[in-house]
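To: structure desk
From: M.T.
Subject: fold request, one chain
Message: Could you run this one when you get a chance? Sequence is below, nothing fancy, just the single chain.
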Amino acid sequence: MIRIQRQIPWYEITDERFYENRRQFIREAIAFSAMLVLPRCLNASQNKKEDKPQSIKPKGKFDTDEAQTAYEDVTTYNNFYEFGTDKDSPSKLAKDFRTKPWQVSIEGEVKKPKVYDLDELMKPFTQEDRIYRLRCVEGWSMVIPWLGFPLGELIKRLEPKSKAKYVEFTTLLDPTQMQGQKRDVLSWPYVEGLRMDEAMHPLTLLATGLYGKSLPNQNGAPFRLVVPWKYGFKSIKSIVKIRFIENQPMTTWAEAAPNEYGFYSNVNPEVDHPRWTQKKERRLGEFLKRPTLKFNGYAEEVAQLYTGMDLRKFF
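Reply: Done. C-alpha cells follow.
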C-alpha cells in the first residue's frame, strides 16, 4: 500500500471530464498517483543516500572505533551562544554567516606575528580525518569524524618565544551577524585558552570540517579548535585571534561562573558540576546513558600532562 502524504487536487493529476466520472477517476487517480509518487520516493531515497556524508573508517592511532553520531544530529544540536542559547538556534540563525574572506591575527610572544588570511595560514598543512569524541558538561556527547590538522604543527611554524606558556584563542565579535552577541549572556567576544603543552599535544586539532565536508556555520566555520579530552566549551569556534602569552588567560566561562567552569575543564567523572553529576553521559541519538570516561577516554594519551596536579582544585 502506498500512503499519500497529502491530498492531491484533481486539477494536478487529470482533467475535468474524468473528474466527473468519480469511480473512473478514483481508479485512474490511484494508478497515476502510484506512478507519480513511486519515482519521487525512489529518487528521494537515492538523493538522501548520495547527500548523506559517509562514515569515515578509523585509520589513525588516536581514532575511536565507536559508532559515529548522525550527521544531522551533529549539525542541528549545537552549543554556539553567539547564535542563541537553544540547541537548535545555531543551525537556524547561522545560515547567512559570512566566513569568506576570513583573517586570523597571530599576536603576543611569537616570532611571526601577523594578520593572516585563513588560506595562507592553512596552506602548508595536510588535513586528514580524525574521529574524536566530544563531550559537553550538560551530560551529552558525540563521536565526530573531524577534518583538520594538529594545532601543534601551526604553533611550530609560528615559532613562539620562550616566554609563551599559554595560547589564547578569540572568537569573532560581530553582533550584526551573530545575533546572540546582542545579549549579555556572556562577556563577548568568546575567549578560551590552553597551556602550551596541551596546545602542542597531537590530539589537539584545528578543525576545518566534519564528515569530509567543510565545517557548517553552526559548528564553528571556517575553523575551530577540538580538544577531545576536555569539555566541549573549550573547543572554541570561528577563531579570529591566536595570542601567545606568559600568564594563564581569563577565559569566558571561567569569568562567567568560576565555581562551575575551571580553566582546565578536563572531562572527569570524579568531579561533579555544582548543579549535576558528571558520572554519566548520553550519546546524542541514544536513549540510555553510559559511564563517563576520565579524560573522555583519552587518559592513556594525556594523563601525564597533569602528573602531580590536584584535579579537584585544577578542574
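Reply (cont.): Residues 262 and 315 are 5 Å apart (CA to CA). Let me know if you need anything else for the meeting.
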